[in-house]
Structure formats: structure tokens, C-alpha cells
Amino acid sequence: MARPAAAGRRPRRRRRRHRHHPRRAGLVRRRRRPPDRFRLLDQRTLLVITFRYHLVSVAAILIALAAGIALGSGPLDDAGDTLRGDGGSTAVDPAVASFEEGFAGRTAGGLLEDRLKGQSVVVLTVPGASQAEVGGIVSDLQAAGAEVTGQVELTSKMLDAADRQFAEGVAQQSAADVPGVSSATDSYGRIGAALARALLADETTPADQTAATIRSAFAEGDLLSTPTPPANLATLAVLVTGPQRAGTADRSTVIAALAGAMNETGKGVIVAGPSSSSTDGGAVKAVRDGAFATSVSTVDVTDSAAGRIVTVLAAASQVDGEPGAWGTSRSIGGALPK
């Protein structure tokens, strides 16, 4: 029979289990945590690692992109310009351009005064030519004393080799009695001779019926347009071209052939364009490398105010019977005529 508990005695406390490792003295055995807690910690740790990996990946992409942009706008871009021949594609500091414009404006009068007195000029343009450059050249021609008879644009159809036979047919039909057209030995020789008869003469004279007929036929055939119809036949032609662009080499060859054929009439032709026009594929380059390099004057700096003055000085030199190539370091005549 169980003994009754003594009155007033406190109940015995349950003894704690000894935490020491049963087989290793001095080691304390850690309590096991609930499995759920381990699972939550594992998930949290996995989430942190995934997020860090994501950040590193994004950072790597951004660094690679930044490096690509830096190279593209730096040495690789310069190399691309060299390969394309885009010598004139570099942006100019507006402050420098303003200075250059102002300086050219102050010095143009002394350089150009009466250099083309008594001469007349028809300005020819092609698709891609800068209207600002054309306007500057017209102003400088007038400052030199020349009469600008008008402005004529040669269309893409005129300059497309695929339309050569059509343009030749128009030239032969509208200028059949013109000696240069009948005696020319190639298509663009005949087309250029017809254009020369429509726009040029040895002396400044009113445009006659033959010239009007040829111009009308070429305009109806969409081979040229006349923003400012010439009232007179001019003694000189300045053909303003645009920058070199990919795929324009054939067009540049046509421009060179037309300029060479027209050069036989009046005082001749000057082909002028921006700096890239004298690189491979450009129209100025095509003239300088062609059969008319020593008879057709060229200028490759119309994208500067000073270069437009050089274009007028080249026209004066052409009138004096001293054609040449002037402008950039690619020009054998130097910066400007002597």
C-alpha cells in the first residue's frame, strides 16, 4: 500500500535529461530543430542565391553593352568611317563652324572680286547635293562677278545606268543636228553633248530654240528638272554633287562621263562636292580617276564655307585654261589655285 505524501511537502520536480553526448565526454549534444524550420531556411537561402545570380547576370550584360557602345562610338566607328570613306560624316563643332563661316565671309570679297567678271555660270545639281552648299556656291559666284543663269537638277533617272538607252534616245531625237551628239562614240558622250548644247555656249547668249527643245525633251523624259530655268546659255557649268554613299559608284561614273562630255563646250565644267566625294565611290573621285582628270576641274571641300570660295576660284582657273584638282589632301593641286 502506497505511503501518503507528507503534508506541506512540495511535489518533486522532474529531472532534466543530461545533455552531454553519451559517448564523448565534454561534448554537448545540440537539440534537433523541427524539420519544417530547416526547409524554410533552405528555401530562403536558395532565394538569395538566385537573386544574386540574377544581379550578376544583368550587370555583366550592362557592362558588355556599355563596352560595345564605347567601342562603336570610338575606334571602331572611326575604322568604319575609313572603310566606308565617310570622310565628311564627322560632326563639326558649331562654334568652329560659326568661326569658319564668319572668317570666310570677311575674306571672300578680297579673294573673289571680279574673278569671274564677264562670265556666266549654270549650276547643275544631282540628288543628294546639299542645298545649303549649293546656295553658298551661288552667292560666291555672284560675289565674283559671274551671272548665274539658272539651276538645273539631273535626276536619278538620268544618272541610272539602267536608263542609259532611254536617255540616249532622247538626246538623239532632240539634238539630232548637234555636231557633238552625232560624232560622239558612246552613249554618255551623246547625252552630255546634248546637255551642253542646251545649257552652254562660248559666249553668254539668250537660249535659242534648239536649246529650249532639248531641255523640254529631257524634262518630259524625267531626266532633268529646272528649279531656276536658265534664261541664257552660260559660258561655264558648276556641277555640285553630294557625299559618297554606299551603292553610288555607278552613278558617280555616269556623272564623270557627263561632265567630261559637257566640258567640250564653253569654258568647261567644274565638279565640286564635300570631302567624302573624293573617296572611293564618290563623284569627284570618279572624275579624278577617269579620262577627263586633266581637263575637268574638281573641288572636294564644299562642306565648308572656305571650300565654297575655293570652288569659285577653281571656276576662275578653269576659265583661264588651267584646270586642276583642289581641296583636301587628296587633291593634287593643293588647297586652292595659285
Automatic annotation (TrEMBL):
InterPro entries, per the entry: MctB
Region called Disordered, residue ranges: 1-31
Gene Ontology terms: cellular component: membrane
GO BP terms, alphabetized: copper ion homeostasis
Superkingdom of source: Bacteria
Sequence ranges of Basic residues compositional bias: 9-31
Name of the featured protein: Copper transporter
